[in-house]
Amino acid sequence: MFAKNLEIVRGQIAQAAARSGRHAEEITLIAVSKTHGPEAIMEAVDAGQLLFGENRVQEARAKMPLLPSRVRWHLLGHLQSNKIRQALPAFERIHSIDTLSLARDVNRIAGELGLFPKVFLEVNVAGESSKFGFTPDALRAAMEELLALDRVSVDGLMTIPPFAPEAESSRRSFARLRELRDRLANEFRVPLPELSMGMSGDFEVAIEEGTTFVRIGTALFGERRGKAWKPVASEID
Ligand SMILES: *Cc1c(COP(=O)(O)O)cnc(C)c1O
């Protein structure tokens, strides 16, 4: 089932890219494996998918030793400061740097661990009070300090638009994230090449609006299981 879904999603990525005059290779597919166990992820690996996204450090760390070392992981969910030390060696990228103080902590701990993490800054473009992320104004105010961090490399921006059943409803948020990136890149003279936006319901719109990373769970794995995967829970399932 994963292999078939992967073929469909890759086809949709290629078509959305072609429609907007882009190359499909500019877009990296992250298979979002939160709640799914190592067997489901292994099926994805066998189908040729090697990059996975997870929301929780502990859930992801429990799966990692059960999967081949060629598998790569991105952290998509909110990172608590007390999990940074566990997260940094495990994830190739963190998409969810959502405050200046978290960025400072990540930078300090990366120094202690001898690492140079690649991160995206999460932006709450629609200003939803329930969401993590910098507001566009807060990000602009923090940008100089973020770019001066000696360990952390800021490669781009990430957003999760307000939930809506229609893919088109996300277009405004995606366009605003791209415009914000363009403004910041220009003002602070940094490339900020990456955009992380687009999930199962709206990734084609995100591609049309310039994303470079799509984060797709349901369209690849099917419906999510109720809660985080745990080694013990899976044994009594
Ligand atoms: C769960 C999640 C996704 C994937 O969502 P789907 O709608 O299942 O594709 C993408 N990004 C983040 C941050 C998520 O938490």
Could you describe the 3D structure shown?
By secondary structure, the protein is of the alpha/beta class. It has one domain (2-225): TIM Barrel (Alpha-Beta Barrel), CATH 3.20.20. The chain is 42% helix and 15% strand. It is built from ten helices and eight strands. It has helices spanning 2-19, 38-46, 57-63, 84-87, 100-113, 136-148, 171-188, 203-208, 218-221, 231-236; strands spanning 28-32, 51-54, 72-75, 93-97, 118-122, 153-158, 194-196, 213-216. An eight-stranded parallel β-sheet has the order 7-6-5-4-3-2-1-8. β2 (51-54), α3 (57-63) and β3 form a beta-alpha-beta unit. The longest helix is centred in the first third of the chain and has 18 residues, at 2-19. It is globular and about 45 Å long. The mean pLDDT is 96. Bound molecules: pyridoxal-5'-phosphate (PLP).
C-alpha end-to-end distance = 21 Å
Give the strand line-up of the largest sheet.
7-6-5-4-3-2-1-8
**Uncertain residue ranges:** none
The distinct bound ligands, ions and cofactors come out as: pyridoxal-5'-phosphate
Dominant shape: globular
Helix content: 40-55%
Helix/strand structural class: alpha/beta
Largest sheet: 8 strands, parallel
Average pLDDT level: 96
The proportion of residues in beta strands is 15-25%
- Could you tell me the CATH topology label: TIM Barrel
Q: How many E strands?
A: 8
The total number of structural domains is: 1
CATH class: Alpha Beta
